[in-house]
Amino acid sequence: MNYPFANRTAEDERLVAQGRLFDPLTRRLLRQAGLAPGMRVLDLGSGAGNVARVAADLVGPDGAVVGIERDPAAVELAQRRTDAANVEFRVGDAQTLDGIEDGFDAVVGRLILMYLPDPVAALRQAAARVRPGGLLCMHEPDLQYLWAGTQTPLWGQIRTWFLETLEKAGIEQRMGPALFTTFRAAGLPGPHLLMEAFAKGGPDAPAWGWANVVATAVPLMEKLGVATRTEVDPATLADRLLAETLSSESCVIGPPMTGAWTALPAA
């Protein structure tokens, strides 16, 4: 899923980089949830196709993955970056899934429900595309968690700006912790849960990950009166964040990612 306020080039770069940090977590989640060779999988809000490629690897050549994304440019990027024969990308709306067939063995999604106007209705639509006994698995963050081991001035400021922007834009900041309740509100069995985050200190600490995310939000920050491009200075943000991390002998912490999965009732 792409941010609604990012320019296309910046968003492509962010999605590609994001995969390096989140794909290992998503792979572990999908394996634990039960994704297996031969399954046919629907990926919601595919963006650059990271999750679809992870799923395709897990289901193998006898399985298949259909990724849907509302932005045609993102679909084109995903197709360009994917050479697996068992992956197909389509333009589609993850909220309504209009035109998407049923009978999938699993529906998966990462960082998608947080952007949707009605996550409960979206889960109902997703469940309607899964065969009886099939799997529904979502992976969502808690963005209110601390982003660094030590809350230095710059880390604190960009976190405040970013969360204020999400709040004003109506984007759910704590979709991960809300997954259990959301599944139940959609009439689904109570899901199993797995929470995991990445963290790293030293010169390889991924401050660039948070810098990329914040940089893509700058146009909306300016539109909503939260902060200006000059104040954020996205061109130097990653270096400044890393410098503060190193000077405080701290670490960079990724958002805790909650995975929720459940099997639909068998026929």
UniProtKB/TrEMBL annotation:
<dbReference type="GO" id="GO:0032259">
    <property type="term" value="P:methylation"/>
</dbReference>
<dbReference type="InterPro" id="IPR029063">
    <property type="entry name" value="SAM-dependent_MTases_sf"/>
</dbReference>
<keyword id="KW-0808">Transferase</keyword>
<protein>
    <submittedName>
        <fullName>Class I SAM-dependent methyltransferase</fullName>
    </submittedName>
</protein>
<dbReference type="InterPro" id="IPR025714">
    <property type="entry name" value="Methyltranfer_dom"/>
</dbReference>
<dbReference type="Pfam" id="PF13847">
    <property type="entry name" value="Methyltransf_31"/>
</dbReference>
<keyword id="KW-0489">Methyltransferase</keyword>
<dbReference type="GO" id="GO:0008168">
    <property type="term" value="F:methyltransferase activity"/>
</dbReference>
<feature type="domain" description="Methyltransferase">
    <location>
        <begin position="37"/>
        <end position="150"/>
    </location>
</feature>
